[in-house]
Amino acid sequence: MTRKHSEPTVSRHIELYESDWEFLQEHFGRQSDAKVGVSNAIRQMIRKGVSDYRARVAARVERVAQAQAVAPAGAFPALDRFFVKGPLPDGE
Description:
Number of domains: 1
Order of helices and strands: HH
Mean pLDDT: 83
Structural class: mainly alpha
Helix content: 40-55%
Number of helices: 2
Number of strands: 0
Shape: elongated
Radius of gyration: 21 Å
Strand content: under 5%
Low-confidence stretches: none
Oligomer: single chain
């Protein structure tokens, strides 16, 4: 019988490092004291990581918006330029 989750889930195949899998099994698997379940632990870790990342992106967008509100137009590059590695195509 499947467990119910608070929202829809999808099943995906991912590769993990062997040492990480062993750690997860040891701390969350059937033989662990926690008995949380490896899948549940991974799902919670990913949720926390995604939530933290979304908060950082929102904070960055907010800081840029505030800086642009007090600076003259065109004083700051577009936000997507922060994510470009190496020289920009237009040589900037």
